[in-house]
Design a protein that fits this description.
Polyphosphate_phosphotransfera, 5-stranded parallel beta sheet, Rossmann fold, P-loop_NTPase, transferase, alpha/beta, Polyphosphate kinase 2 family protein, binds adenosine-5'-triphosphate, 12 helices, binds magnesium ion
Length: 288
Amino acid sequence: MKHDRFIVPANTKINLKDYDPAYTDGLTDKAAAQAELQQGVQRLAKYQDILYAQDSYALLILFQAMDAAGKDSTIKHVMSGVNPQGCQVYSFKSPSSEELDHDYLWRSNRALPERGRIGIFNRSYYEETLVVRVHPELLVHQKLPPEANGKEIWDKRFKQINHFEQYLVENGIVVLKFFLNVSKEQQKKRFLARINEPEKNWKFSVSDARERQHWDQYMEAFEDVFNNTSTSYAPWYIIPADHKWFTRLAVSDIIVSTLKSLHLSYPTVSEVRRAELLEAKKVLESEE
Ligand code: ATP
Ligand code: MG
């Protein structure tokens, strides 16, 4: 699969309307896509094993989307083969009072993956330029001093986030950013399914329907995010999300090729270490 069409190029102004949520790259066979996803899952498991053994890079994968775009199920399917010890998922909710007492990147810093690990952010510090922008009253809780809370606050946050991500990347934390692009119509269908099917009721919250009323404001905020924070070192990927099987396949494919591009390898064994291993072998073999 070619990934170019999903990447938001750096220093370019895109229009979200040009990205089709129902795109499937010409694929129509869901079963074939699922089989391909299984291969992706296996390759991801293999790369993760080497990432962990090499203990040098970390991979941060973050997901942003409107409700019901499929963040949870994409994470579940794409990561289904990886060793849980090498992977951590962190879901960012409304900040607690302790978190609000700190700068807005504080809680993200604490949740960053260790070397050798894959860290997943289910929502992220980008909420600080999305939900907080759509609902300016949330900014009031942050008690920012006036000079930090001017009209330029969003541009400042974009700049701060770019610097933060550059810092991460320059320190071996690879940053992948996915926007799951669901259409407003498809969201409605999924909400109705959550209401109509008892085993899905728990997934629906009244606040999700309320956020839907701000759809256009969210799309504008997202567009501004992509146009200001898609960089050469930490690009945004806009993933079509009206067909979940395609979303999973595309995300899996991009993660796998990102890991591949790192040319990971198992640590090589030094002469001294090799001698140690042979010595241990001798001892074991000489046991009764
Ligand atoms: P799901 O509904 O699938 O469990 P979710 O990510 O929608 O997953 P919720 O608990 O429903 O989880 O919603 C989390 C809420 O927290 C979202 O409405 C999101 O906008 C909000 N949130 C996340 N980060 C921030 C932030 N920095 N400031 C304000 N609100 C935030
Ligand atoms: Mg929710």
